Amino acid sequence: MIARLAALVLICATALLPMQAMAQSGPLRIELTEGVIEPMPFAVPDFVAESPAAQQFATDISRVIAADLTGTGLFREISRDAHIARVSSFGAPVQFADWKAINAQALITGSVAADSSGRVVVKFRVWDVFAGQELGQGMQFVSDASGWTRLAHKVADQVYSRLTGETPYFDSRVVFVSETGPKDARQKRLAIMDYDGANVQFLTDDSSLVLAPRFSPNGERVLYTSYATGFPRIHVLTVGNVDSRILQVGEGEMSFAPRFSPDGRMVVYSLTQGSNTDIYAMDLASGATRRLTSTPAIETAPSFSPDGSQIVFESDRSGSQQLYVMPAMGGEAQRISFGEGRYGTPVWSPRGDRIAFTKQNAGRFHIGVMRTDGKEERLLTASFLDEGPTWAPNGRVIMFSRETQGAQGSSALYSVDVSGRNLKRVRTPAGASDPSWGPLQ
């Protein structure tokens, strides 16, 4: 883990010189709406290898870029078998007529160099084929060989942003609970991976039950709940050195369901004293705590708004599990969920405009979204058991856990677009649950 993280620090980006920024008039742009769209066809020929040592990197990086873009459901790659033109050098003129003939609206070209010190350099350009011009400036990214997938994700992020105008999310990581063993004796440990399931690494062993990991806003720390002491207790883990410590609570008290504040200085969580569960906040530097709710009900699953001014949480104070919003310092809470069924695990979108949640109704579980005032509820999924949504850094994609029914049932991670399109499974080497999506690296 430490070696990998050190390697990734080497990654940097520069605009290529003397490439020219070309004037844009009606640039190629895919408009993201809530309706069904036709994926934009694009071509990404294998990047040019500038030496024999770079050949495999050139092929692999091109394929990861294509997979990132097509995985959004917004783009459709044109098979390389259909390509008429061949790209033999990074600086060669683009034969736009050949790319128009196969209806490629966007073209991504690039090259890869690998030197004897293990450094990999990727250059790329994005072209608007029908306008016959470059979109933005060419750029290059540099890393050591172990960071080649991040190089590919960074190129894909740039292409995604130029074609959609949206903040990207490919160069990001997800922390989750890796699950192995039978359903009645499941072993669970914390793991971290790239957003697409690649490069899985474990952060804890399976000696004790762990639940609900949550990334800090800068991605350097993870909160999670562990039963290592026999009671649920919140731990803070530093990702870089895999060192963790317990957030201290009183004897016999149970703490769980933690989340960081947007500035990373506070933790909001649930604390059970006797038979009562309320929401508290703790200053990580001083350890000072503040009680935010005080009712006989079960109050849990708190999540800050992006500006840190409000907290959404779940409570059964009305007689059934529903969602409420209160000021970040505590105070009067407003119920925002009024549909049929029970609501839980709310999480505020990084855009601040929606709240994702788990809903149980009529024997089915759903992942859904609603406005922060509870209006415009929309269910995105339905299954035997879907739960625990987490937002991509750009607030456009949601990842969650899905468990299958029966004694042999297993848990896996899925993602879905906020519009409900593009539902797909995220590959993991074993069962997986409780994802938490980190920030762009």
From TrEMBL:
Pfam families: PD40, TolB_N. Keywords: Cell cycle, Cell division, Periplasm, Signal. It is found in: Periplasm. Residues 1-23 form the signal peptide. InterPro entries: 6-blade_b-propeller_TolB-like (IPR011042), Tol-Pal_TolB (IPR014167), TolB_N (IPR007195), WD40 (IPR011659). Residues 28-135 form the TolB N-terminal domain. GO terms for biological process: cell division; protein import. It comes from the Bacteria. GO terms for cellular component: periplasmic space. The Tol-Pal system is composed of five core proteins: the inner membrane proteins TolA, TolQ and TolR, the periplasmic protein TolB and the outer membrane protein Pal. They form a network linking the inner and outer membranes and the peptidoglycan layer. Part of the Tol-Pal system, which plays a role in outer membrane invagination during cell division and is important for maintaining outer membrane integrity. Belongs to the TolB family. This is Tol-Pal system protein TolB.
